Amino acid sequence: MLSLRRSLTAAWLAGPAVSVLALAAPARAADEQVPGPAANAVTLPADPASLAAAEEERIEPRAGEIVVVATRLKGQVDAPQPPILTLSEDDIAAYGAASITDLLAVLSPQTGSGRGRGAGRPVVLLNGQRISGFREMRNIPPEAIRRLEILPEEVALRYGYPANQRVINFILKDKFSARTIEAEFGQPDRGGSSTSEAEASLFRIVGQGRLNLTVTATDTTPLFESERGVTQVAGSIPGSAAARTLIADSREVGVNATWTTGLGEKGLDGALTLNGAFTRNDTASFFGLDGVTLSPLARRGQTETTEAGITFAKPLGTWQLTATLDGSHAASLTRIDRADGTRLSDTARSLNDTATSLLTLVGRPLALPAGDVTTTLKAGFAWSAITSSDTRTVAGGARLRRGDASTGINLGVPLTSRRNGVLPGAGDITLNLSAGVNHLSDFGTLSDWSAGVTWGLTERLGLQASYLVNQAAPGLTDLGAPVVVTPNVALYDFVRNETALVTITTGGNRQLVRETQRDIKLGLNWQIPLLSESNLVVEYFRNRSSNVTAAFPVLTQAIEAAFPGRVTRDANGRLIALNRLPITLAREESARLRYGFNLGGAIGKPAPTARGGPGGAAGGGMPGGPPRGAGAGGPPPGAGGGGPPGGGRFGNGQGRWNLSLYHTVQFENRVAVGANGPLLDLLDGDALTGGGVARHSVEAEGGAFYRGFGLRFTGTWTAPTRIKGTGAPGSTDLRFGALAKINLRAFVDLGQQKRLVDAAPFFKNARFSLEVNNLLDQRQRVTDLTGAVPIGYQPDLVDPVGRFIGVELRKQF
Q1: Residue 352 domain-assigned?
Q2: Which residues, by range, are in coiled-coil regions (predicted)?
Q3: What residues have CB less than 8 Å from 60, skipping those under 6 apart?
Q4: What is the number of structural domains in the chain?
Q5: Which of 173, 200, 235 is the last residue of a domain?
Q6: Partner of 132 for a Cys bridge, out of 308, 309, 718, 786, CB 3.0 to 4.6 A?
């Protein structure tokens, strides 16, 4: 049976590669590209006043003088805030990411925001323009990128986004073509579970047109508690460990397609992009034995997601219009075995539909002595709907709807300018103002506004300060999700210092109210004169929030005292039931400092005869580490740098190295549970979650690539924390030890190994990589004051994977 499953899995994973290569066969003609402007880069036309000023400022060289004129690369972001980090195509190639998704994962220390607002990936731009969704570009090979810019959160306001995430701008090359297949396999060094991945893609840029087609498949086998020797909760049925999964059995297949065309004569009057994607995910997990029949209890799920997006960009005189529309439909079916001996299953169904539209108009309507006033106008409408039914609910199905109409404005007002001679001694000072309004159909009206200043003291040193006020509504499911009662959930009770099997109630809470956020950010960006490529970033954040919607916290004595009606205990004080509907916290206060540096440079001396770009990139996302991204990659046929796909060297024969290191220190993190309730200090042993809040944390990434060989690492360190006990008999503090994780990846560009290619031409334009995630096999150790490990914090429950080893082969045609 096992051999049959492996055979079926191998055939299933091979399908995407075969299908895309079949489509890619006739695409070889695209290798003969026609030069043209940067793909899909629709730039703002210059207004007459600006053109006249440019003519007046033109410098005529005198005899014997050499005048160097710098021009802005088409697709660059035009903002007063300087980039935190800029990467050239050689820098990007040395990271070795297989796609933009993988590159973002590797760059997480630089792209992460310390604001503490928002979640998920940063704001992503393509050639300086908004896109309908990340799907438009997630499978673009890094070899196609000419330059990458990472910018501070304030720049997001210029593109209609909130200022809670950093901005990444990808500038594509003028021409490019690649057909790529990847295969990856990995598993924990202790075995038990494995992950297999296969991907095939076709990507092409021709003039203003772009085409990207990617097919992916992933298979993960299950890992059971019995394979890690997990101790069971007291009262569990004997043999339950063999019927409880730590990692679910899962299979996923997906296809993603993007097509872009230029508009007007030669495609220079705007661009239209269409995107579509489909994903199917099947999972199966087990959560114990039936108390009557002793058969395993399973939870089986199936989710199918269909997504589509449209981006329309067009210059309107001196303004730039961008309109985006993104929609998704996700249908989910879950079957949960009943634990009553009937061999029946409960069924949960859900339909999630979203549609988001946004129109932005960017221009320079007013000229001041210090420069042009930049203006962004935006208007949009977002709609979301959730339809669900669950046979376990006490209130039947649910139909939730929300419409969100929004409008806003952002102004960038230059006050002083060295270039224009307006108070040049003061440097470059720009004022940034924004305001917006949202009206939610199920909640009411929300507003936001912000004010900030950017001060470029010198060409290398810049300061920023911002004050942001924002109102936020509870999520749609926080308000209206159906009530679900789930029995026999293992939960740690901090009051009694024990793990109990508890009946948990979850769902929505209609009593939640509007949240108000007031934040201050101060920043410094200094280009260090020690190296040609180095900078120091320092950022301070102070956040204040009132009426915060939050998931129900861990059950400590303070939380139980604040919400006594949510907790049910038996006559002996043992926890038997908990109502975990969302709650409203009276206020939150936090302050933190995040600082770090980015260093980089060349390795070796330039070689006059060097050509091309680095080889096919490494990839693959495996458990325990960032998704892929630890090899090196370069331009395939038709790429801007020329040379064969993935088989050349850097443009001047040199290698690259880089190192980034960031440290975050928390000065305060306090929560008032209720207006008259306890004030919790999360840095001093109080807790809302099951792990405490660390005062210090460190992120690092770095590596080098030279002559076909590369080595990269990422690492994180989190300081120890604790959760205070109640002082009652049986209660004790919990100590969470420091945790350091290092992920390592070594890779070799097989195309640069001449003897190997001569012996086996297949290895031309191929790359092999070996990754070890959690190199030191570290897990956070949790103990009470006696040194004992609570049963709910066993190391293999906290991290069942541990050290993970994977191999990957990537080939370009």
Answers
A1: no
A2: none
A3: none
A4: 2
A5: 173
A6: 309
